[in-house]
Amino acid sequence: MKRALAATCAALALGASTAHAWEGTTTHAGLTEVAAQSSHLHARLHQLGFDRGLFEALTVPPEDAPALLAALAMFPPTAGFTPDARGRQFALAWLVAGAVLADAPFAANHFYDPATHRGWARPSMSVWTRIAERATSALPATGVAAPDWVTSKDNPLGLDGFIDQYAKAIRGATPGERSRAMAGALVAAGAILHVLEDMGSPSHVRGDARAHLDPIGPGAGDLGSRFERVTALAFGRLGIPGPSRVVSRPTLRGFFTTSEGSKDPGLAETTADHWFSADTLPRPVRIATGSRTVTPSLARPLPAPPRLLNLMSASQVDGTTLDDASGVCLARYRVERGLLSFWLDDDCLLAQAQAILPETASYATGALDFLFRGELNVVGGNGEIAVTAAAAMGAGTLELLSEDARGVRAPLKSIELKPALTGSLLAAIAAPAGARRIVAMFRGVDGVGERLIAVGAIELAP
């Protein structure tokens, strides 16, 4: 945990001003909160022994993770995700903290174009003014594609960190150790959600790095996506709408992009195929005299404007609107001196955000449930404890732990398991004397080969 946040803290201290994602303390924090509240995480934490669920107070002692606490101390306590002097705050706040911190220093790894399967690529400096060149000269030339970044060994706040901390939150000997590790698992989970949520921003999934270099403030280096700034100003944190549904996918990657052999779209395809971004609008096209149809020159195949546009309305000073099937603004367009052109204004961007945010929250909610999905059935009777698979499982290790009246856990048995079907008996042991609780944890892969922590427990009579 110390290593995981050291780089993040250093990057935050640099105070980089260029924005390359939904804004962390507003949009990302809000999306992550509504995802947590709409997911099964509250009930899951309760099952794991954190009785207050999302509102369980978890403590990370400052000496255990100085970089993490230093990074969070840079935000005001009113932000709602800054722990107190003891390193203590609610579970939900630790999750949000991970979502806020994830941008630094890895924001360039939060892009993915499903058409090219590539991530961030810095635009040519030849198209920018000297001011923009100075502001962007420190940006990396390329970035790791977002679906690859969340599982990369180089990502301290990725799946590896989540799995490691989650396992420690189950097998930790004392309540304090488990509390500290669960906070770490939630920070990593929040950072993973952050990267997924960025797939809801059109420029992140349409190869449009240039859209993130627009002036959005008075400072020379205050550059970013106008769409994301409009969203932050309009919705803040508390105004983020909840999910329209809960998306389910069999793999973590499937939430980001369409998995091989699957027809279910990831958030990247859902966003990229439905919305334009600032620099992937249809290009201006000359209209022939008397023509009633027009074929705009598209940067990408989708979304595709109809051939029969309202050219008469487009000839007005303010132009007219290209709507989607739900009546949401996709773009404005006008005809001026025989030239058809498209643009996005703030009202159009605001309407898009109103439609995009619930969809993004739907994927984030499903991904959070996916991370904490693993369950084991633990039953007892006549002094015997049996552990069975709640769902199909691949190979891995089953650990059985005994918890006493003080909440201290001790290992009972470790078993190497082969793949098992739903309902398969995984282990049977005699209930140890003095145990108040038996906890079972499986660490391995699920039935489709995805990494998995599965947990089950049973309370024993005193």
> Helical residue percent?
25-40%
* SS summary, helix count: 16
Radius of gyration: 25 Å
Number of domains: 3
Which percent range describes the beta-strand content?
Answer: 15-25%
Global mean pLDDT: 91
* Total strand segments: 15
Strand order of the largest sheet: 12-11-14-15-9-10-13
Label the overall shape.
elongated
User: Sheet with the most strands?
Assistant: 7 strands, mixed
Low-confidence stretches: 2-19
Task: Briefly note the structural class of the backbone.
Answer: alpha+beta
- Give the termini separation: 36 Å
Structure description:
The protein is of the alpha+beta class and about 450 residues long. The protein has three domains: about 1-260 and about 360-370, no CATH class; about 285-345, no CATH class; about 375-460, Sandwich (Immunoglobulin-like), CATH 2.60.40.730. The protein is about 35% helix and about 20% strand. It contains 16 helices and 15 strands. The chain has helices spanning about 1-15, 25-40, 40-45, 65-75, 90-100, 105, 130-135, 145-150, 160-170, 175-195, 200-205, 225-235, 250-255, 265-270, 310-315, 345-370, and strands at about 55-60, 90, 215, 225, 285, 320-325, 330-335, 340-345, 375-380, 385-390, 395-405, 410-415, 425-430, 435-445, 450-460. The protein has a seven-stranded mixed beta sheet with strand order 12-11-14-15-9-10-13. Helix 5 crosses helix 10 and helix 10 (about 175-195) packs antiparallel against helix 16. The radius of gyration is 25 Å and the shape is elongated. The model is unreliable at about 1-20 (pLDDT under 50).
